[in-house]
Write a structure and sequence with these properties.
Radius of gyration: 24 Å
Shape: elongated
Helix content: over 70%
Strand content: under 5%
Number of domains: 3
Order of helices and strands: HHHHHHHHHHH
Largest sheet: none
Number of strands: 0
Number of helices: 11
């Protein structure tokens, strides 16, 4: 897997976009024009209200341009999401994408620092522009402080969402790997089992006598999960299905034997 693919999957895991869509996301994807018009209008009105410029033609023009641009981006995003939903539903690759996102390694420390600095600069500039119109303190110390506070709040909310998603994943895939291994009957079950085993190995390494399986489980899960898509893209027939339950039992045996 290329570095840029790993980076995209890491971002995908944080944002949760690799998981099957919610009802709200499905509804938005079905109505891209409505979403674009609504989001653009709300953004334009909010921008004009924040700058108190409903009687200023220049601010109204800027708000119109901002709303039109945001509406166009929302429309394009919904059209792209609708295409992705249809494609993944047709090919059955939602589980594959979700497992890849869960197996992806986090961003490097340098990438995280650059992302935080970029977001902090944007939020600081936003407060610098809005402060004079809202009687807020404006200065080289106040604006960065407000930006850092907003960024800290957003980061805390993202961490809570990530922990909640990971906790739900561990509950769904079952805490007891032995019970889950017995229930493996299909390729999708086996891919989910490998992801659960990999997560368990990383979260509770003391339970694994053979701790050298991490790279093997990650590579095996990626290969098995992407096999149908690879065969489809190369015009090849999917090979005969092995005994997935036996393979899961072999993984459990390797867990305690090195």
């Amino acid at each position: 897997m290329r570095r840029w693919e790993k980076a995209l999957l890491a971002v995908d895991r944080v944002l949760g976009t690799g998981e099957p869509p919610t009802r709200l996301e499905l509804a938005a994807a079905r109505h891209p024009v409505r979403v674009g018009v609504t989001s653009g209008t709300v953004m334009a009105v909010a921008f004009a209200a924040a700058l108190s410029g409903f009687d200023d033609p220049v601010i109204l023009f800027q708000a119109t341009l901002l709303g039109a641009g945001l509406g166009l981006l929302g429309w394009a995003a919904c059209r792209n999401a609708r295409w992705l939903h249809a494609y993944y539903t047709r090919t059955g690759r939602y589980e594959e994408v979700r497992q890849k996102a869960l197996r992806a390694k986090p961003l490097s420390r340098r990438a995280v620092i650059l992302r935080i600095l970029g977001a902090w600069a944007v939020t600081s500039g936003m407060f610098w522009l809005i402060a004079p119109h809202k009687d807020l303190p404006r200065g080289w110390l106040w604006s960065p402080a407000f930006g850092a506070g907003l960024l800290a709040f957003v980061h805390a909310a993202a961490l809570l969402k990530q922990k909640r998603s990971r906790r739900q994943f561990l509950v769904v895939t079952a805490t007891n790997l032995d019970d889950q291994a017995v229930r493996v009957t299909t390729r999708e079950d086996f891919v989910a089992f490998l992801a659960a085993a990999l997560a368990d190995l990383r979260d509770r390494p003391e339970e694994w006598e053979n701790r050298t399986l991490e790279n093997f489980l990650e590579a095996w899960g990626a290969w098995v999960g992407s096999l149908p898509g690879w065969c489809e893209n190369h015009g090849k027939q999917t090979p005969d299905q092995p005994d997935w339950n036996l393979l899961a039992a072999m993984v459990m045996a390797a867990r305690t034997y090195e």
